[in-house]
Amino acid sequence: MMAEDIDVANHYNLSTAYPEEWPAELDQSGESDVEPFHSLKTKRLSRSRYSALERGYGSRMKGSISGPARTGHMADKLVLKDEPDPLGTADSVVKILKQQGLSIDEEPRLRNRFLLSSRTFSPSLYLSHAHSSASTQSLLEGLDYLSRSIDQKSASLKVLVESNFERFIRAKATIDSVYNAMKKQGSEPDSARANANRASGHIRQSGVRASSPSPAAATNVDNRKYALTKEGDYGMKGIRMSLVEASGKADELWGPALGGREREQRLYAIGNAVERNRAVYEIGTKLFRAIKQRDYDSIFEEYRRAKTFANEAKVTADRAISGRRPLTDEETHTILVTGRMWIDVEHQIQAFKRDLWHRLSNVQTSSSLITSSGPVEEHMELIGALLELGVEDNPVWIWLLSRYDFLKTKIIRFCERSRVEIEVLRRRLAIGEKPTPQVMTSFLRLPLREGATESPEKLDTDQAIELWECIHTYLTKLLTLQSGVLGEVIDFWETAQSFIDGSKQKALPVGFEGESRKHHRLSNDGVRQLQNGIIELVDLIRESVLSLFADPPIEDISLLFSPNPTTPNTPVSLFTPTESRFKLDPKNLPPPSPKRGEAWEDYAFWPPYANSLSGVYYLSKFLILIGTAASEMTTLGPITVGSSTYDRLKSLVGIARERSVRVICAAWSKDAENCKMLEDWTRDSERRDLTKMPGLFMTFESAVLAGMQKILYISEAMSKAGTVDVVTPPPAKLLQMVRTQFVSSVYKALSGLVENAERAIKPEGDDGWILVGPAVAVEGVDITSSIIAADGIDARNRNIRMLLTLSNLKALQADLVPQLVTNFETSFSVKLTEEAKTIRDVLSQIDARLFQSYTKPTFTALDSIIQGGIRAPDWTPSSNRPDQVRPYVYETMLTLVLVHTEISTTIPVTPSPGSASTSLLHNVLSHLLTQVSSSLLSAFQSRTKYTLPALMQATLDTEFIAQTMSQYVTEQASTIQSEIYLELDRRTNNEARIKLQDELGEMRGILKRLRERTRGEFACFKKVRTGGGGKS
Length: 1032
Known about the structure:
Component of the exocyst complex. By secondary structure, this protein is an all-alpha fold. The protein contains 33 helices and two strands. It is rod-shaped and about 195 Å long.
């Protein structure tokens, strides 16, 4: 640029001597100046090309310049072109800026912003360019230098003022007088103004209006236009109005002619420039539209184009610098346009990246999105987008870390809250009313009902089932692979493993010119951290389950009042086993369960007062979940066989199983005590000689054994092929515990049978059981209540209860208990040799006890009848040849008939000769016959001597009973009968013996006639015909 051009640019404060338009910042001071003439300017069709002249002239008329125009136009002309550094580090500011790569020789406005003497001096701009690399110490030293310079200049100015003070005073007085004279030019003196006011007053009073001002007034008006007043625009009003009017007319006449071609050339040049860089101009708009529509392909395409243009512009600038040549106008324009485009693109891309990072950190599921190329996992799409755009941090690693943190937080919060909710339900059940034995026993009947195992809500009380279901939901949400946390952990490791081995990255982009390829591999330290993280997550799950089964109930439940997290990473409703339906009053918390010595008080997972049926049902499900989950966790890569984590998983299964078996055995024992209440004294539908109690007990025991087998062996927790099974065989200690409890439960149930038979019950109208002590021994037989219908049971009759219990015992001893023992041996692969012998002995003892209890009253009555009859004085016959048996014989036989009737009606005889009913009838009558024989022997022994008639009477009595009851004669009874004849023989003489032999034939005839006459009365004692036909 030539020197003249530089002077022109400096004079008008322009950046170049040939500007295409007047700078906008120089228009600010002129806007208010032309307000009075706004009506004139609105008539112009286009912008005046003399507007610069108007503004400059108007400013001179105004007399004072404000704003940037004044600063740039007036003051900056006085600024030096260079000056020393204000901080004292160099002699030339321009030289310092040139060293920094900033040339300001041809930019006066920019240069003035670096010069301290300029009103536009910018301290921040000056320091950021001239002293960008200065240290703090050098800046402090520069501050001291600047302070000293200011003090020196202030002192010089003070000396100047003091030495020329009188001159300043005179000059000030002269200036003020001249200013006042110019200001008052054209104004009237005070006296003239007063006269004019009075004259105008007279005119108004007379109502006469002056038609025109006087010549003197007109002259004053013209003079006031040039007075230095604000109303006269400080003497410029007249000239400015003329110039504005002339400018408007010139613009109307010559503006179109002079500016049309220039405008055309300018628009043509702009159009060519826009056309050449159309692609650059369109990138920002296309990118904005693509981001709004989330069209990733278009975003990547536009970003690559923008980067390509930016790189080309950089290469152009680098070539110019390396070639030490100035840029052409076209190159400069292209670089400027590309720079503005790149700034816009970079701003949009950074905002888009922040959105991608935010979405990636919140993607915690492997959900798939449907794209044009097929289904794509959402996190993979976001990672690919970030890699395509280029990022410093590895999005794969960031997502894996966020996923790990999410799972860790989820496990901790879910498990802590679940434990509290389980404890609240447990406490509510513990402090509630204890269920009565009748209620508990009612659930032991349910396994016989159809579909009981498919309806677990029928196995226990509603509160107990609610707690069982809560624990089951908790373990399901924690340990299942389909919908549980463990499934998410395993899915996370599989995803991490695919990133570790690099298979997942094959589908990821490498970015612009491969800049994101470095993020396709995880570091060794990162892999190690992922492996440790998986082990930590597994340990958290394991410890949560172990705490539930091994630890006592928790004390602190205040966590329930903490608000659920509401962050997107931790949903509220998904992870509470009760779905957050607890509404507790903090001032009325359920207290800890009282200590009553119950077995379940030390088990956090066992509902108080729950029975063994619900226990084996749910705990078998729990252990299947735990065993399956433990097996699945051992398949994870970081958990190797023999590692501490593997051993802890095996220990988890073992501890949960042992604790479950212990508490079930305690509940099993309690239920076995209540099994006596299963007896409702109704006949079994299939075996009419039994009540329902044996079948109910059999079903109950079988259900418990089946559930216990699942708990001990966890056979359904089968791991998939290729995995290591952490479920070990049950230890011998647990098997022995179950064996002992099995035998104990059978013994308690059998004891309950005896108690039911020997203790009275309330009448039918009352519900429940009463224990009134052992029944009083009866002196005789309750004949009226013994003869009942075959299908009816009079449970108030002790003999009937005894008979049904004896029949039940026979069935248990012969069929049901051996079947249970076999079932146990098959289920647990053990032999119950000793236990089976113990159970048989117990059954035999109980059977013998009940048998004696039933027959003793009858035997006592029979013995009394026999003893009284034989010892009576009239027993000895009055005739020499007796032909009748004594009445006590008929009374004895009638008693035996009633016993036979009671047994046969209470226990219906089945067609099978070896049935329990037939066996019991035969055993009872055989035993009573033996006792009758013993009573006869004892009674006959009470007499010291027998005559021939007495001997014949004793023989008739004994033989009549023996022959009538012949099918019930046992070896012992035969032996006793032989002893009777020996005793009779000892108590007679030889003559009577010889005569007795002569009378035997006649006696046989008498016995035959007696039996014929009593055939109907004693027909019940006849032998049952066999298939062949005749009697035996």
